[in-house]
Amino acid sequence: MTTEIALRKAEIEDRNIIWEILQQAIERRRKDGSTQWQNGYPNLGTVESDIAKGFGYVLTVDGNIAVYAALILNDEPAYSTIDGAWLSNGEFVVVHRVAVDEKFAGQGLVKQLFDHIEDFARSHDIQSIKVDTNFDNLAMLKILENKGYSYCGEVYLSGGIRKAFEKIVI
């Protein structure tokens, strides 16, 4: 029996499941001793805004939501000022708010999410993917390294300094 994994736009009906997944991730970050996502962001309003703007995406496993991410095209004001340098100045996809449902943790689904995002970018002739994460988010830092993302410098976002990465996909 094969497992069907797919990336699709989030729908408003998905908001409560997505919010539950984000709450799990917020708690995991807290238990890990991180300051990331510990100031009331993201919240249910963030999820609703992502969905309304068409930024919210879910990775599903056999139709069940397993991973949430916001994918934003060419728009992250914080990325215009970087202590360092981006690899490119062309069109890009920004990846924010990646969170995995605890039921699916440890199954490599975030790596698969990034594969799907790369396919999405290529299919839309988008040059690169840009992402940032907290300096202490070791799981995400490892994923970005394994997926071939280049460290570009630091950006100031959500009240803190974040490590910024980019990968050219076309």
Structure explained in plain terms:
The protein is an alpha+beta fold. It has a single domain (5-168), classed as Gcn5-related N-acetyltransferase (GNAT) (Aminopeptidase, 3-Layer(aba) Sandwich), CATH 3.40.630.30. It is built from four helices and eight strands. Strand 7 (150-157) and strand 8 (160-168) form a beta hairpin. Helix 1 crosses helix 2.
In short:
With 170 residues, the protein is an alpha+beta fold. Helices cover 30% and strands 32% of the residues. It has helices spanning 15-31, 44-53, 109-123, 138-146, and strands at 5-9, 56-61, 64-73, 83-84, 92-100, 128-133, 150-157, 160-168.
Write a concise keyword list for the protein shown above.
170 residues; alpha+beta; Aminopeptidase; Acyl_CoA_acyltransferase
What are the SSEs and their pairings?
Elements: E1 5-9, H1 15-31, H2 44-53, E2 56-61, E3 64-73, E4 83-84, E5 92-100, H3 109-123, E6 128-133, H4 138-146, E7 150-157, E8 160-168
Parallel strand pairs: 5-6
Antiparallel strand pairs: 1-2, 2-3, 3-5, 4-7, 6-8, 7-8
Neighbour order of strands in the largest sheet: 1-2-3-5-6-8-7-4
Strand proportion: 25-35%
- Structural class per helix/strand content? alpha+beta
How many structurally independent domains? 1
Count of alpha/pi helices: 4
Protein name: Ribosomal protein S18 acetylase RimI-like enzyme
Keywords: Ribonucleoprotein, Ribosomal protein
Pfam families: Acetyltransf_1
GO molecular function, one term: acyltransferase activity, transferring groups other than amino-acyl groups
